Amino acid sequence: MNSRKKSNWIAIVNRTAGGGKTERDWPVINQLLEKHGIRFEPCFTNRRLHASIIARNKIDEGYSKIIIVGGDGTMNEVINGVFAQNRIHTTEVMLGMISVGTGNDWARMFNIPADYEKAILTIKQQKTFIQDAGLVNYRKNDKEWKRYFINIAGMGFGARVVERSNRMKDKGKSGPLLYFYNIFFSLIRYRALNAEIDIDGKTIDRSIFSMNVGICMYNGGGMMPVPHAIADDGLYSITLIKKIGKLNVLANMKRLYNGSIIMHSKVETYTARSVQIDGPARLQIETDGESLGHGPMRFQIIPKSVRVISGELSA
Predict the structure, then answer these.
(1) Which of 17, 18, 142, 292 suits 24 as a labelling partner, its CA being 20 to 30 A distant?
(2) Taking 90 as the threshold, does the pLDDT of residue 18 lie above it?
(3) CA gap 312, 315 in Å, rounded
(4) Pick from 107-111, 171-175, 275-279: least confident
C-alpha cells in the first residue's frame, strides 16, 4: 500500500501458521499494530520457504526491522533469509515475533507474550537480545544442503515425530495434542540407530534413540530436551538419549517437560562448538520444527549473530 511505502517495519505473515489461525486472526493483529502506531508493510507468504525470499529481498531493499507473524517454522525461514542477504550484518536486522503457531517454543524461551496486544507492546519497546545461530549441513535426495536455525535441531525419534506431525498439518490437522499423539504413534515401530558422533573433535559411538542439538531450551510445545541451553554462550547444548525401552520412554515423558530428562541414566549431555554425526540415512533431522533430511550432518555455531526482540528475561 502506498501509505505504508515509507514504513519502518515489514510484517511477514504466514497465514497458514497454527492450522490457519493466522488467517483468521490477522485482521485483529493488523488493527492492533495500527492502534499502537507501528507503521509497517505487510508481506504474505504463499508457499513453503517464501518467508526466506521475502526477508532477503526486503533487507536488500533497505528494511532492517521485521515482524514475524506465525510460528517457529516461519521464524526459521526468516532467519535463513537474513543470512542469505549480504547488504548488512545479520545483527543489524531486528526481529520481532507475534506467535500464532502450534508450538511457539522459541517465543517461550524469550518470554514473548502469547497475547497479541502484549506481544505488540513488547515489539514497540524494542528491548533486544543478540543470540547465537546454528548452521547444519545435511543430505536430501543425494545432495548436500544447509540450513540456519535459532532454536533446536532434533535427530532420531524426535525428527520422526516432527515429520509425521508436519504431514498431518499439511492435511489441515492441528491442535495442542497433535505432537503428543504422534509421539505415541511413532513409538510403535521406531528403533534406535547406531551412529558415530564427533563432538568438538572427540569421537563416540552410540545407539541413538533421540538427540537434540540446541541453542534454546524448548521444543514440542513446551518440552525441555536441552534445559542447560544458554542462547548466547557460543555453544550448542546437546542431549543424547541412548537406546531405551518403549515403556521407559512413556514412563519418563514428564521429565521432558520439567527438564529432568538429563538426569536419566540413558541420557548423556554435552556442550560443543561443532558436532558431526555420521549415521544411516534413516537418521532424520529437523530444525525449529521443520523436517529437513538425513545424515551425515555437520553443525557449526555462529555466536551472537541474530538480534531478536525479547520480553522480560529472568535474571
Answers:
(1) 292
(2) no
(3) 9
(4) 171-175
Mean pLDDT of 286-308: 95
Residues 6+ apart with CB under 8 A from 3: none
- Rounded-to-integer distance, Cα 153 and Cα 48, Å: 19
pLDDT at 4: 42
Bridge partners (DSSP) of residue 278 are: 196
Pairing state of beta strands 9-13 and 65-70? parallel
- Is 2-126 in CATH node 3.40.50.10330? yes
DSSP string, 200-246: TTEEEEEEEEEEEEESSS-BTTTB-S-TT--TTSS-EEEEEEES--H
Compute how many other C-beta atoms are within 10 angstroms of the C-beta atom of residue 12. Answer: 26
Question: Per residue in 222-262, pLDDT tens?
Answer: 899 999 999 999 999 999 999 999 899 989 989 999 999 99
CA distances, 186 to each of 19, 161, 179, 207, 292 (Å): 21, 6, 10, 18, 18
- Count CB-CB contacts under 10 A for residue 14: 25
With beta carbons less than 8 A apart as the criterion, state whether 253 and 221 touch.
no
Which class is domain 133-303?
mainly beta
Task: Give the helix ranges, DSSP H, for the chain.
Answer: 17-35, 50-61, 72-84, 105-109, 116-125, 157-170, 178-187, 246-251, 253-258
> What is residue 279's predicted lDDT score, i.e. its pLDDT?
87
What's the pTM value of the predicted model, to 2 decimals? 0.92
Query: Which residues contact residue 61 at a Cβ distance below 8 angstroms, ignoring those fewer than 6 apart?
Result: none
pLDDT digits (tens, 9 = 90+) for 168-225: 776 666 666 777 777 887 888 888 999 999 999 999 999 999 999 999 999 988 899 9
> Which cell numbers hold the place of 100?
500464532
Q: How far apart are CA 115 and CA 57, in angstroms?
A: 30
C-alpha distance across the termini of the chain, in Å: 42
